Hints:
By secondary structure, chain A is of the alpha+beta class.
Amino acid sequence: MDERGLHRLIGTIIAPERLEDDCAIIPCGDLLMVASTDMLHETTDFPAGMTDWQVGWMAVAVTLSDVASMGAAPGQVLLAVGLDRPERLAGIMVGARDCCAAAGAELVGGDLDAHRELTLVSTGLGTVAPEHLVRRRGARPGDVIAVTGPLGEAQAALVGYDRHRKELLEPQPRTKEGEILGRAGVSAMMDISDGLALSLYDLLAVNDCGFSVDTGRLPLPAGVPEDEARELALYGGGDFELLFSAPPDVLPVPGVEAHVIGEVIPERVVLADGEPLERRGYLHEWTG
Amino acid sequence: MDERGLHRLIGTIIAPERLEDDCAIIPCGDLLMVASTDMLHETTDFPAGMTDWQVGWMAVAVTLSDVASMGAAPGQVLLAVGLDRPERLAGIMVGARDCCAAAGAELVGGDLDAHRELTLVSTGLGTVAPEHLVRRRGARPGDVIAVTGPLGEAQAALVGYDRHRKELLEPQPRTKEGEILGRAGVSAMMDISDGLALSLYDLLAVNDCGFSVDTGRLPLPAGVPEDEARELALYGGGDFELLFSAPPDVLPVPGVEAHVIGEVIPERVVLADGEPLERRGYLHEWTG
C-alpha cells in the first residue's frame, strides 16, 4: 500500500475534507490559522553528506512551504527532535532557527527525545485573512497553471548533478511568494514536494476540472540535457516550489517569479502535451 | 548528557523564556493559543502488549495534557505517524481520534511516513483567555501545592502491579480540570509526566520560591505497600496528573479532585518532610 492509499484509509477515520489541503485550517479571531506537521528522518529524507545545520534547515523549510501554499504568513514553528547523538543538536537547532528567521517565523518550542534514527517533526503555524486563504480546491477552466521556479533541481542533485546540491539540501520555502499570491487572488495552490505529476493528480482529486501542461514551458534545471531535465521536472521529488492556478489576468504578480506551464481544462484529466500524464513520482511505500 | 542538559543548550539558541512552559504561547485574536508537540516511539514509550489503539490514544493524551496544564481548552491536534507496518495505521488513528473526542478536541491533520520504528508526534493546540492562562512561573510563598489525582500508578504498572495497567497505557489528560483550574485562579501549573520530584525541580527553576511537600499527604497508587507506593509517587514517570500551586482560599474548586500535598515556601529549595528531595525521576539519557 502506498502513502496515498493509506491517506484514503485515514479519510474514513477523520473528516476527509481535513485531508485535502497542505495545512489544517483553524479559526483564530478575525484571521484563520493554518497548521502543518511534517516528519523527516535520516534513512528516507537526509541524503548522505548533509550537515546538521542543513538537516535543521530542511525540517523547517518543508513545513513553512506548506504554510506558504495556503497563502498564509508564516508565524511559529515547533520542532520535535528524536536525536541519535547529542552532539548533533546544536547544529540542527541553529539550522532550524535560521530557516525560521529567513522566513520571518519564530521557533517557539518543541520536544526532545532519544531515538536510534534521527527523526525530526516540525509543525508550522501561519495566519491569513479569510479572503486571502488559498486551498487546493478552487481551480476553474480557463485559469492558467504556473509554478514559482525551476522543477527537478533536487532530483537532479540526487542523480549526480552536483551543481544542484544546494537546492536539494537547503530548499527555500516560497513563503514570501505564497503570501503575495494569496493576496493577488490565485484560485488554487499547493507545494510540489512529491513532484509535479503527483501534485497535478492531487489537484485533480479535489477539483471538478483538469490540468493540461505544456512540457516545453516547464522551467528546467540548468546544466542537464533537455530530455532528462524534463523527466526530472515532471517526476522528481524534493522541490518546494508552489504550483498554482489563477485567472490569466492575475499574472504577472509583482514580486513573484511565476512560470506559466499550462491551463486548467474542463475535462477531469491530467495531460502533458495533449497526452495523459503518467501518475508517478515520489511516494513512501510500505511492503507489509 | 541528559534531557535537561540539552534543554539548556537549546536555551542558548532560541529564546530561553520559550522553554519555561509546557506549551508555546501564541497570539490569536483576543485569545491566546497554546501549542505543544510531543514525540513518542516504540522502544522508549510503548510498553510491550500495548494495542495500536492505545498507542494512538497515548500519543494524543500526552500533548492534550500539556495544553491542559496551561489552563487552556483543547482545540485541535495534528498527528505525524512514522509507521513501521501499514496494518497498524487504522488502530492508531482511531485511538487518536477517540482521545481527541473524549477531550472535546478535533484531529485535524498530520503526516504519514514509513519508519523502521513506530514514531508518533502529536501537536496539540488550545485557546485560553489571557487572564486565565497559567504558567509554570507564578507560585508565591503561602500558596498550597496540589495534584489532581493519584501519583505513581503508571510506574506501579511498570514494576508489575497489573491493576494499574490501564492508567499506564491509557492516560487520561486532565483537560477539564486544567481549564477549570485556570478560571479558578491557580498561580502556577504543569503536568507531571516525568515524576513529581523532577516536576517540583522544574517549578523551582522558574520561580523565586521553593516547594515543601508532606509525603504523608501524597495520593498513592492502590494495592501497593506504602513505602514502595511513596517511592513510586515521588519518582515514577508516566502519570499525567496536573501539579499546581494556588492561594489556599482557591481550594476546593468545584469539579476538580485536588489533593493538597504541601506548600510554597520562601526558600529556593525542594523539601519532602523537611529534608531536601532527591532530584531524580524519568529522564531520557544520551550515552554519546
